[in-house]
Specification:
Elements: E1 18-23, H1 31-44, E2 48-52, H2 55-61, E3 66-68, H3 96-109, E4 113-118, H4 120-142, H5 148-153, E5 158-163, H6 179-196, E6 201-207, H7 209-218, E7 223-225, H8 235-248, E8 253-259, H9 272-283, E9 286-291, H10 303-322, E10 330-335, E11 338-343, H11 344-359, H12 363-370, H13 372-385, E12 397-403, H14 410-423, E13 427-431, H15 434-440, E14 443-445, E15 464-465, H16 473-482, E16 487-492, H17 494-505, E17 517-521, H18 537-554, E18 561-567, H19 574-583, E19 587-589, H20 597-610, E20 617-623, H21 632-642, E21 648-653, H22 665-688, E22 690-691, E23 694-695, E24 703-709, E25 712-717, E26 725-726, E27 731-732, H23 741-747, H24 765-771
Parallel strand pairs: 1-2, 1-4, 4-5, 5-10, 6-8, 6-9, 7-8, 12-13, 12-15, 12-16, 16-17, 17-24, 18-20, 18-21, 19-20
Antiparallel strand pairs: 2-3, 10-11, 13-14, 22-23, 24-25, 26-27
């Protein structure tokens, strides 16, 4: 797919080209971030960029609806919900006459590159427009509406799509712009309902399909009805039996999620009202239904959606400028944390296949076609919600502990690990206060109900400490023997990794340590080797981002103010960098990207220039340990002195608020999947290590970190990750997000070189499906 040699100067790629950006269909949070990035990266490459106001209708109407975009025109857009340039559904564009007018408007302005942000209808429309293009131009020339010359200049239209739709129903894309924000809204509502439930009650909530499934995972729902997977015959009895059973076990509250379009096996619709009637009539439980209509479209975009939108915008501009008449129209998307390009037509086709599969009752196919992440979500949900604990015990004891600083999402991981263990027939043990608790015997059984309602709780319910095990190995080994612990789940930050490593190294001396162990990364700093993400980082990122929004807004009335904000993260610059991208910072100082007095001078001058424009605000982020001498106070003093008479400065140190708070949907689901997967893996390992009536695990691969790597959850031996670890600064040597830093700088108008050598080549959805089926 990559036509250009990487030596091409990215700041000259777009010279002589024009790009138009439009948003279409329903609003989705994060569209503005995508528009902002498309505009700024387009300008950075030397291209002209135009806004199309009011979607396809604006394309048809032309005139004032298609306006040149400037750098400043997209300022302060990041934190706004919906779409600033408007998105109308257009009847006119559906007619050939309408599309002819649209083509004429584009030709007259010399625009041959179109970036469309919208749902599947909008993107399908864009592709039709492109296929008809030469025919439309021929007719326009015939009718004397454009000249031969103009038609020749604009002979080919390039199209790139970004999926902005909260239904996430477009196949081939893991996360669409706006999905994460919609989940934030929904979870707020569901949390509010569940915390006010004093008496026993059943809450039935109605939601779009994809959102229904993820919401069910994120709030630990008792049942979810989705169109792709109708319940088995006799589900009414099964449901009532489950609810009665849960009550008998002491659970007061039940949440049932009903997706729009949910049906039974014989194709009859299932509604929340119907379920309310069923539960009230049969069981006499108080039931209320909540319909979450447009609540999910409101509010400010989440940090994830802003970063997603920004990265997609960059990728879209690159895809447009590299396209040739032979390249098919593509959709830019994210898979895991990698930007990818997919042929638009294949995505449309697969989306149609899903509808067909469901209409024909081939529900398993529908789930498969939906893609890997949908299938994983469904499998995790099924395992955690629907299975009654087995009568046969495995006689295995699995201990779970939290290590390091508390973070949001730890409890979700503990809950799903405990429940998955019980489903496997194991006895689960809770260890309080980390390795200290393991050494002092603060260990007790934990059961199915002890963890109910944990998914949405912040912090660490088990209690957590930073102490490492090396000084207590003797007591730890005695307690592993005394409590007969056969496997260990260690959930925590960098200390969890180091502590796990110390236990593995102690295996030579203490036979008790020869048990399978798994480390699940959970820390706001995202600094654990072996994983691209750690549980808790997303929640912290949202806290920092929303705080920065407020700080920026506080200056809306005043002229020329620069804010210097210090973030946590130890020596790891992940939070500062990602928050910088999400909040639109002018600079983010981090330890991994060394800076000196010259860089500081450049940054100050950059802000002085910025104050001459209409944008009178500056935001500087500084990671707490980025430089021992250039402290937050030093940077504040430097900016205050150099900015005298041009801008004034304020500083904020965010502190421990970054570790707290209710976990975001991402952290809840990530925690839930990691917890479940870790115990399934331990169960397999235990079978492998069973020798002569006892468990003996002594190989490096019997102690692993479970991490997210590019696109999949993978297990990597603790010992193998040593070579990639900087133990002094508690960070991995290789960090994927450093490649995103240039995007932040370009979006802040620095004229740096963007490395375009790492191309996202065009992939195929159809092939991708089978390859990922492992």
């Amino acid at each position: 797919m990559s036509m250009h040699a990487p030596t091409m100067d990215p700041t000259k790629m777009g010279i002589g080209r024009s790009i138009a950006v439009l948003t279409s269909g329903g609003d989705a949070q994060g569209m503005n971030a995508a528009v902002r990035a498309t505009v700024r990266v387009g300008l950075y490459t030397g291209a002209k960029v135009f806004f199309v106001h009011e979607g396809y209708q604006g394309l048809v109407d032309g005139g004032d609806h298609i306006r040149p975009a400037t750098w400043e025109s997209v300022s302060m857009m990041l934190q706004l919900g919906g779409t600033v340039i408007g998105s109308a559904r257009s009847k006119d564009f559906r007619t050939r006459e309408g599309r002819m007018m649209a083509a004429r408007n584009l030709v007259k302005l010399g625009i041959t590159n179109l970036c469309v942000i919208g749902g599947d209808g909008s993107l399908t429309g864009a592709n039709e427009f492109r296929t008809e293009w030469s025919g439309l131009l021929a007719d326009l020339v015939k009718g004397g509406k454009i000249t031969e010359e103009e038609a020749k200049k604009s002979s080919h239209l390039n199209i790139v799509g970004m999926v902005g739709s909260i239904d996430n129903d477009f196949c081939g894309t893991d996360m669409t712009i706006g999905t994460d924000s919609a989940l934030h809204r929904i979870i707020e509502v569901v949390d509010a309902i569940t915390t006010t439930a004093q008496r026993s009650e059943v809450t039935a909530a109605a939601l779009p399909q994809y959102l229904a499934l993820v919401t069910a995972l994120a709030c630990g729902a008792d049942w979810v009805f989705i169109p792709e997977m109708p319940p088995d015959e006799g589900w009414e009895n099964h449901l009532c039996r489950r609810l009665a059973d849960q009550r008998a076990r002491g659970s007061r509250l039940n949440v049932i999620i009903v997706a729009e379009g949910a049906i039974s096996k014989d194709g009859k619709p299932i509604t929340s009202e119907q379920i309310k009637k069923l539960v009230t009539d049969r069981l006499g439980f108080d039931t209320r239904t909540t319909v979450l209509g447009h609540v999910q479209r409101g509010g400010t975009p989440s940090a994830f959606d802003r970063i997603l939108g920004s990265r997609m915008g960059v990728e879209a501009v690159m895809a447009l400028l590299e396209a040739t008449p032979e390249t098919p129209a593509c959709v830019v998307s994210l898979s895991g944390n990698q930007a990818i390009r997919l042929p638009l037509m294949e995505c449309v086709q697969v989306t149609k296949d899903v509808t067909a599969a469901m209409a024909e009752g081939r529900f398993d196919d529908a789930i498969k076609l939906r893609g890997k992440s949908f299938e994983n979500n469904w499998n995790t949900y099924k395992l955690l919600a629907h299975i009654n604990p087995p009568d046969v015990k495995s006689n295995i004891n699995v201990a779970i502990m939290n290590i390091g600083a508390p973070c949001a999402g730890m409890n979700a991981a503990v809950r799903s690990a405990v429940r998955m263990g019980i489903i496997q027939g194991h006895t689960m043990l809770a260890v309080h206060d980390g390795f200290d608790g393991l050494a002092h015997g603060q260990i007790e059984p934990i059961n199915w109900n002890s963890v109910s309602g944990w998914t949405g709780k912040g912090g660490s319910n088990l209690g957590t400490k930073r102490t490492l095990p090396s000084k207590m190995l003797e007591q730890i080994s005695l307690n592993i023997a005394k409590f007969n612990i056969h496997a260990l789940v260690i959930i925590g930050g960098f200390e969890a990794y180091v502590g796990g490593l110390e236990l593995v190294q102690a295996r030579e001396k203490y036979e008790e340590m020869c048990i399978p162990m798994v480390v699940i990364p959970a820390t706001v700093s995202n600094n654990v080797p072996g994983s691209d993400f750690s549980i808790g980082a997303d929640t912290a990122l949202n806290t920092i981002t929303s705080t920065c929004d407020r700080i920026k807004q506080s200056a809306a009335g005043t002229k020329r103010r620069v804010f210097i904000v210090e973030t946590m993260g130890g020596y790891c610059g992940y939070l500062a960098t990602m928050a910088g991208l999400a909040a639109g910072a002018d600079a983010a100082y981090i330890f991994e990207d060394k800076f000196n007095i010259k860089d500081l001078e450049v940054n100050v001058e950059h802000l002085i220039e910025k104050m001459k424009t209409t944008v009178k605000r500056g935001l500087i982020l500084r990671n707490e340990n980025c430089n021992a001498n250039y402290t937050t106070d030093f940077i504040f003093n430097l900016y205050s002195e150099e900015g005298k008479g041009v801008f004034d400065c304020r500083k904020n140190v965010l502190g421990h608020m970054q570790q707290g708070g209710t976990p975001t949907p991402f952290d809840r689901n990530f925690g839930t999947k990691m917890g479940a997967k870790s115990v399934l893996w331990l169960t397999d390992k235990l079978k492998e290590c069973y020798r002569h009536g006892r468990i003996f695990a002594n190989t490096p691969d019997s102690a692993c970190v479970l991490g997210m790597r590019k696109r999949a959850l993978t297990f990597q031996a603790l010992t193998e990750l040593k070579s990639d670890t900087d133990f002094e600064h508690r960070i991995p040597h290789t960090q994927w997000w450093l490649k995103i830093r240039p995007i932040m700088k370009i979006l802040a108008k620095y004229n740096i070189k963007l490395d375009t050598s790492e191309h996202a080549d065009m992939e195929h959805v159809i092939k991708k499906r089978s390859a990922l089926g492992k």
